Amino acid sequence: MNVLLSNIKPGNTVTVVDLLESSLKPKLMEMGLIAGKKLKVLFKAPFGDPIAIDLGGYVLSLRLDEAGLINVNEVKD
Fold first, then answer.
1. What is the pLDDT of residues 26-60, one digit of tens each?
2. Integer Cα distance of 23 and 58 in angstroms
3. Where are the domains of the chain?
4. Most buried by CB count within 10 Å: which residue of 19, 42, 47, 58?
């Protein structure tokens, strides 16, 4: 079941399914957010925005509106 990255709780690992159409889509893809990529939500700021993700060994910070453009599937352990 697809869910938006902005709704994933810290500590969970997900796989990117696709990105919603947006002017930010090319930039997000340049940062490595492409279909099939696994990432882990590390933490959310106290008020939930921004979030930090581990993307292939580097930490990326995303605003919630940016994370809301990314469809993901949760990885079951």
1. 999 999 999 999 999 999 998 888 999 999 999 99
2. 24
3. 3-74
4. 19
